[in-house]
Every structure is written in structure tokens, then in C-alpha cells.
Amino acid sequence: MGGPVKHPMNERTFPAADAHRLEKLERLQWLPPDEIMARIGPVQGMTVADVGTGTGYFAIPFAKAVGREGKVLAVDFQKEMLENLRRKLSASGALQNLVIIEGEAAHTTLPENSCDLVFMSNLWHELDDDAGVLREVKRLLRPGGRVAILDWRADLVPPPGPPVAHRVSLETLRLVLSRHGWTVNYSENVGMHSYLIIAGLTEILSRHAPDSV
Ligand SMILES: C[S@@+](CC[C@H](N)C(=O)[O-])C[C@H]1O[C@@H](n2cnc3c(N)ncnc32)[C@H](O)[C@@H]1O
After folding, report:
1. In testing the pocket of ligand 1, which one of 6, 10, 62, 77 has its CB within 8 Å of the most ligand atoms?
2. pTM above the 0.90 mark?
3. Percent of the chain beyond pLDDT 90?
């Protein structure tokens, strides 16, 4: 919390100059937000952090689904991406419950214990600091909260999507999560090129355990 937002971009970071690719109509066919959200289950009234939100491809449908009582915190570390999201919102009508936040996945600047769901789409393979990000997710989640991670299947080749060498398989991510004290409740391929993993904190790991992530 606090301090300047760190921007540790790397060679896998999705360039803001390519933001239009996130908005291609065909993407709605191979990665339909409604289908992904149905797998996650009802979110009405929840606070959802969409980390690595990009142009808000998921943040906007989530903001509609959480309704007036809920909130979506759309976080990204590229100002230009967030500008795209702002422009999209002003063109389509602002959503009162969608808050745009410049933040880094391991240092979101969001308050602790503030979220029911942390969602990350096509972000995981771009991250360098898995442990730091999972520690941050844990800090953000309220008791019973969940993390939902969607990313590119490693058993398929592009296009679309990043080179296979950049991808993290569903099996690897499952292992990373369980190594860091998470219980995977759901893991399936979704859409045409992706997988989705949903996890909660394993009960024996208390929020205050100093060594756990
Ligand atoms: C491939 S885009 C996906 C955008 C959006 N989630 C979607 O599915 O349309 C990945 C996004 O994650 C952001 N990102 C990458 N690394 C990040 C980090 N460490 N912290 C915050 N955002 C990050 C990038 O700026 C980019 O907007």
C-alpha cells in the first residue's frame, strides 16, 4: 500500500499499442465473457478486482453482473490501457460501480480484506513475481474469497495468443497454487483457447501465518 506504482514490464507484457486486439469481435466467440462468468457463479453484490484489466473486456460485464450493491475494481499498471477503458466507458455510458485503478498486480494499492473475488485474465503468463501476486491476492480477499485465473492453454499453438514458450499450463498453475496454500475448486478448459482455475485459501493456512503466501 502507498508509494509509487511499480512498473516491472517484461518481454511478455501485452503492449498497450495492441489494445485494439483485446476488443476484436471474434474474441467474443472464442472467449465469451458470459460463459466464463457462468463458470465462476453468481457475483451479485460482490466486490470483484479485475487485475490486469486491460481494456476492461471482463471488467465491464462483471460490473453489470455485480449490480448496484457490488463493485468492480479494474486494476492495470499501464496508464494507456486504463485510458482505453476510460474512453470505452465514456462512449458506452459510465458504470458507477466500476473503479479504475493504476496498480501493479503484487502491489495493487487496494485495501486489505476488500474483495470477494480476484479475477485475472491472460495476466498470469506475463507475471514475474508469482509469490508476490498470490500474497497480494490473499491480502485483498475477504474470508471465503476466491481467486479465478484464466489463461492461455499451453497445449495449443498460436494464433491467437502468446508464443507457447510464454504460456503456463493448467497443471503447472495448479501446482503453484497448491504450493502456496490454495485449494483448487475448479480447473477446466474454457472457450476455445483458454483454461480457468478457481481457488480459495486452504483452511489451515490462517490469514496471519507469517510464512504462508
Ligand atoms: C493480455 S492483457 C489482458 C487484458 C484483459 N484481462 C483481457 O483479458 O482482455 C494483460 C494485461 O495485464 C496487464 N499487466 C501485465 N502485467 C501486469 C502487472 N504486473 N500488474 C498489473 N497489470 C499487468 C497489462 O498491462 C495488460 O493490460
Report:
1. 77
2. yes
3. 88
